From TrEMBL:
Protein name: Ornithine carbamoyltransferase
Binding residues for carbamoyl phosphate: 55-58, 82, 106, 133-136, 269-270, 297
Listed Gene3D superfamilies: Aspartate/ornithine carbamoyltransferase (3.40.50.1370)
UniProt record similarity statement: Belongs to the aspartate/ornithine carbamoyltransferase superfamily. OTCase family.
Encoding gene per record: argF
Record-listed L-ornithine binding positions: 165, 228, 232-233
Length: 315
């Protein structure tokens, strides 16, 4: 498998086999790190980390992942550079592309990311946009694989804001890899039809089932219950209406019990606002694997950088 030189903008651009390869590479890099072995697969590479929005996990995953493999990360926050204000995105991309070997971008518009990718001339990686958060999905899939030994055939229920970057990206990733995906949300927050249609196609190919529902009973038989904040970065003005709308969709002990399976796990991309989308007792319970997911952000992001920029496993 050769992903050298590729951008990582959404999982739409990656086949099931390519995603599986990234997960295998992540597991190998994780095992190596646990043994105290770091590589030089990114030796001498300079990596720009552009952040219009704040971040704990993604920023630290890129920094640590890059350093572990010999690269030099440089953080460029929203007030540090002129991106989109005094200098166009295309010009910024061409300047950074002359100096850096790879560029991560976290921000608002997905089109900004696409423009960076168009002009940079080096791999561009999505660290989250309003529409997609694909590196998070790799971490989630790796966590599920570690926990269940496989992902294909699992029943995955995402509950909450069915229209945000997490819902969109989980739908793509799960249906591509043969995971039965349910989006459980009030109708006004259902995913957009165009993306549902696309994911129906992925599901058909992989043998998965995609369900969109507003009925809480849809959690029955879930192996994974996953939620995200009710108010994403950039939509703070919607807080009041979202809380009202999503209250019935809180992940609490009653909801976890409704799956009918003792083995159901709880997942969340974090940061979590406890008492809203999830109760403290579920978050802290033995069923919660949220910190495994958080750690796996680093191993999977490292794998994306190694595969697209470095000496991969088979190069
Ligand atoms: N899950 C995630 O992307 O976390 P951060 O916002 O802290 O990067
Ligand atoms: N939907 C959340 C994800 C955070 C990782 C947000 O965009 O704020």
């Amino acid at each position: 498998m050769n992903l050298f030189g590729r951008h990582f903008l959404t999982l739409k651009d990656f086949s099931r086999e390519e995603i599986a390869y990234l997960l295998d590479l992540s597991a190998k890099l994780k095992a190596d790190k646990k043994k105290g072995i770091n590589g030089d697969r990114l030796k001498g590479k300079n990596i720009a980390l552009l952040f219009e929005k704040p971040s704990t996990r993604t920023r630290c995953a890129f920094v640590v992942g890059a350093r572990d493999e010999g690269a030099f990360p440089e953080y460029l926050g929203k007030d540090d550079i002129q991106l989109g204000h005094k200098e166009s995105v295309a010009d910024t991309a061409r300047v950074l592309g002359r100096m850096f070997d790879g560029i991560e971008f976290r921000g608002f518009k997905h089109s900004t990311l696409e423009e960076l990718a168009k002009y940079a001339g080096v791999p561009v990686w999505n660290g989250l946009t309003d529409e997609y958060h694909p590196t998070q999905i790799l971490a989630d899939l790796l966590t599920m694989k570690e926990h269940f030994g496989k992902v294909e055939g699992l029943n995955f229920v995402y509950i909450g804001d069915g229209r945000n970057n997490m819902a969109n990206s989980l739908m793509i990733g799960m249906t591509k890899l043969g995971v039965n995906m349910t989006v459980l949300a009030p109708k006004t927050l259902w995913p957009l039809k165009e993306l549902v249609d696309l994911c129906e196609g992925y599901a058909k190919t992989s043998g998965a089932k995609l369900t969109i529902s507003e009925d809480i009973d849809a959690v029955k038989d879930a192996d994974v219950i996953y939620t995200d904040v009710w108010v994403s970065m950039g939509e703070e003005d919607k807080a009041k209406e979202r809380i009202e709308l999503l209250k019935p969709y809180q992940v609490n002990i009653d909801l976890m019990n409704k799956t009918g399976k003792e083995s159901t796990i709880f997942m969340h991309c974090l940061p979590a606002i406890k008492g809203y989308e999830v109760t403290e007792d579920v978050f802290e319970s033995a069923k919660s694997v949220v910190f495994d997911e958080a750690e796996n952000r680093m191993h999977t992001i490292k794998a994306v950088m190694v595969a697209t920029l470095g000496k991969g496993d088979d190069k």
